Amino acid sequence: MRPHPVPLDFVFRSRSKEEKAPASPVTDSKQPRDPQAPKGRPTPKRSMAQSQRRSVTNTPTTRKEAAKRQRDERRTQMAKQREALASGDERYLPARDKGPVRKFARDFVDSRFNIAEYFLPLAVIILVLSMVRVPQLQNIALLLWLFVIVLIIGDSISTAFRLKKRLAERFPSEHKKGAVFYALMRTLQMRRLRLPKPQVKRGERP
Known about the structure:
- There is one protein chain.
- The protein has about 210 residues and is an all-alpha fold.
- The chain is built from seven helices and no strands.
- It is elongated, with a radius of gyration of 40 Å.
């Protein structure tokens, strides 16, 4: 028995109907898409879109703009540091002046009378006396110079010993390396010229 032949027009007609049939669109009923949003992405929130626009706006486009922005930021930071050195604001102080240990060391020095803070004026006076062509005055200048040096060394040793003891009592678990040397360097500066500015009066216990 011979098989019944399939008409060719039926095969081509069925295939053309399948090709012309439109594919059913897949829609997501849970989240509507913004007409202006890219295809396949959810609509961003307004706050997120605003932050993205600000970040794009604030991003420098050229090397010159980036360098200018760095200079402006550095200038602003330096201005804040100058104000902090005058007011004692811990937030903007330089790294070497930050921390409770360094603040206590400054207050400890500023609350005491230090012979070393008069080193520069005394040195000028001694230098002037030594330049006078009078042997007696030159001898006095030499003796005065030795006397001042001995007093400064003795006062510095006493200050370092007392400060080290107070730091150990007040900050037993804090990092205290360099705090004593930091305080001794401050004693060599005249009180009105010290930075950060003194925050305690003489005789006031820190």
